[in-house]
User: Fold ATP synthase f chain, mitochondrial from Rhizopus azygosporus.
Amino acid sequence: MNAIFRRAYSTKTLIPPNVAAATKVSGASKDASITRLVSFYKTLPKGAVEAPKPSGPWGRYKARYIDGDNASVTPLLHLIFGVFVVGYTIDYHFHLKHHKNVEHH
Assistant:
């Protein structure tokens, strides 16, 4: 039972096989396959990946106010202000609609 558990939860599936091993590659094609493998790995980028620059209005807003070290409460204040402006605009529109014929003034 212990061997089954070890086999099921081993990290073998996470580690790629050794493609360049002499037991795996044999004959005249050995040099060609290793050369292709080496050239493939040489073309891969090295080092840390650069952070992508934000694009679009929401991406720039998120990068400026929400992500990273500069996270703040500013988006909450923007939301409160936006709800106030929309609510006031709707209320003002219906107020003008109600007093369309100057009946109450």
In short: Residues 74-98 form the longest helix (25 residues). The two ends are 90 Å apart (CA to CA). Residues 87 and 93 are 10 Å apart (CA to CA).
